[in-house]
Amino acid sequence: MLWRSVVGKLWLTILFLVSVVLTILMVLLLQSFEQFNVSEAESQLVNHANMIASMYESYESKEDALQNISQYGAAFQSDIIIFVEGENVWSSDQLQREALDILFTDQALSQVFSGEKVVTTEGDFPFLSEGEESHSEIMIVGVPLQPTELEDSAVFLYQSLSAIEETSNETKQIIYFSAGIAIILTTIFAFFLSSRITAPLRKMRQVALEVAEGKFKTKVPILTHDEIGQLAIAFNRMGRELNNNIHALNQEKEQLSRILVSMADGVITLNKKGDVVLTNPPADRFIQSWYYEQGMVNEQDKALPEALQSLFQRVVALEKEQFIEYEMQGRSWTILMTPLYDDHDIRGAVAVFRDMTEERRHDKLRKDFIANVSHELRTPISMLQGYSEAIIDDIAGSDEEKKEIAKIIYEESLRMGRLVNELLDLARMEAGHVELKIEPTEVQPFVERIVRKFQGLAREQDVVLELETADVTTIMCDPDRIEQVLTNLLHNAIRHTEKGGNVTLIVRQFAEGLKVDVQDNGSGIPEADLPYVFERFYKADKARTRGRSGTGLGLAIAKNIIEAHQGQISVHSKVNEGTTFSFFIPTKEQNE
């Protein structure tokens, strides 16, 4: 609406003020001009009356005087009445007797006959016009006539007030017309002025709306150097500062977002009600796992685990950080929650999740490693100690018994040395200190030699050992390390295959690299044990029957050797059906 805008308000205010001022001036001017017209008419009548009195007194012949007075009176629009000695000697119009008597009876007009002063008055007097009486408002001026010589003599001039009203009406029309022109010009000027003043304000409003939409580079044009121009300069400066602040905030927000996304720990921000406000991907995975465990839909209620809710309640109640460990889906999580403050009031909390599964697993492996090493060393040490005591106590009577005891002590010492060497090799490999002597190796003679080496053991176990090759040529590898891997795999395959079984070494070469399979139809590995076969000291034999069964480090060493060649090793097995160990060594180009 027009009156709600600045243009309308300013326009109407200026128009109202000008209208009030013009109205007051018009009223004052009308009164002033009306009084001026009356005063001017009185002054003219008095002058004419004095002139007529002078003319009457200057002529000796009264007839000549009256004739000249008649001619003089015809020159202006006024009527003349002359009284001499109380008698009406001449008049330009026929008044009723009552009107003539009023000249003597009226208190103001009667003062003229006494020769005291000139009298001016206005009144309603009866006139005869064509035999009919009419009343009219007139102005009468009386001037004494020879007051020292004649009594009751005077000259009266009277004029209808309608002439004065006509003059006043013309003056009013001029004033009204001038006021109308002034109002029109004021309206145009006020509209132009208000539009010119408010045009920069409207532009600022438009720019402010654009700034609210995020267009911070929009500027207000500076057209003047007055207060509005200074306001435009301040607005542009505010826009620049706001743009800089928003840019800095966006950078900080982006930086914080990148930090949260790249964090390995999960972060969840909660408001004062305990609702989730912000999460990062690790925290999302934690919540998804909890949803899955509870059988919930992802967006259902956005609920948190009860342990986390109780932790949040403790944080809010105690206003201190709290720490818990939480097990879920086979993984171990540590949760640290800290309160967030708004001045001095708590406005929420932030929880940091850390997946400690690998750390717990490593702790368990370390403990298992110590237990396994102790267990592995205890048997040969006990045997060495026992047989040494037998020699010291001369329990062995004959030389053959002594040789037998010495042989056992020697074999156990070799076993201990082999265990220690394998532990050292494995430690070096896991530390990344394995040194490979890469050289071109002819595959066919290499695998044939290894198979020949195990033919004797296979015959002793009544196992058929076979070799299958396809398009094998040369491979870049460390032949000693690969022989160590094949030795371990073939030895395990023969040892775990029943009599009459088959062990097959399958070697195939592709453009990408060399693939080797050690396949047997022995007892197989339980499915529950398959994920752990490449761990140190792990054995499918839960009773830990040691004897000649090995140290449990061979497969771990084999895995590290293959991974040092940038390859992969895997196992597939079914109980009572057989096991297949496979490894793949990429070509030198693939390695690079």
Automatic annotation (TrEMBL):
Membrane topology field: Multi-pass membrane protein
TM regions (residue ranges): 12-33, 174-195
Keyword Phosphoprotein: yes
InterPro entries: BphY/WalK/GraS-like (IPR050351), HAMP_dom (IPR003660), HATPase_C_sf (IPR036890), HATPase_dom (IPR003594), His_kinase_dom (IPR005467), HisK_dim/P_dom (IPR003661), HisK_dim/P_sf (IPR036097), HisK_sensor (IPR041328)
Span of domain HAMP: 195-247
Domain Histidine kinase positions: 372-589
PROSITE patterns found in the cross-reference section: HAMP (PS50885), HIS_KIN (PS50109)
Gene3D superfamilies per UniProt: 1.10.287.130, 6.10.340.10, Histidine kinase-like ATPase, C-terminal domain (3.30.565.10), PAS domain (3.30.450.20)
GO BP field: osmosensory signaling via phosphorelay pathway
PANTHER family the record matches: HISTIDINE PROTEIN KINASE SAES, TWO-COMPONENT HISTIDINE KINASE
Protein name stated in the entry: histidine kinase
Organism: Halalkalibacter oceani
